Amino acid sequence: MGLIFAVLIVAVLGLMAFVRLAPADAARWHVAQDGTGWAKAPWDAVLSETGGARLRLSAAAGAPGDLLVRLDGVALATPRTTRLAGSVAEGRITWVTRSALWGFPDFTTAEARDDGLYIHARLRFGREDMGVNAKRLEGWLAAL
């Protein structure tokens, strides 16, 4: 019984280490936002979807470049959030936000376009994020 318990503990710690230490490939996550999924996304409101969320801020909310500058500050003030890649000058930034207990990474990419700021938050592991990404985007929207 003790051996089974020890093996279980080692397996859980191994999974936790894998989740926390797996490299984040900027080439995979810091990419231009394609047209897929944006047709259903309303302007200036968070759209929750399986494994993530989307938010399009219209130019009426502000100049897209200015919104990106402000969003970068809001994102970096969020606990356990770091910039993975990009810059305001590039017009696209990707952040990684990790969950408190396990350190599961969620990736959020914001891209300034002529008609607004497009923000896509999504998980890396699993299929369902239990609304975490939508909740984060709603908080970021309120902070803007």
From TrEMBL:
Domain of life (superkingdom): Bacteria
Pfam families documented for this protein: DUF1499
Protein name: DUF1499 domain-containing protein
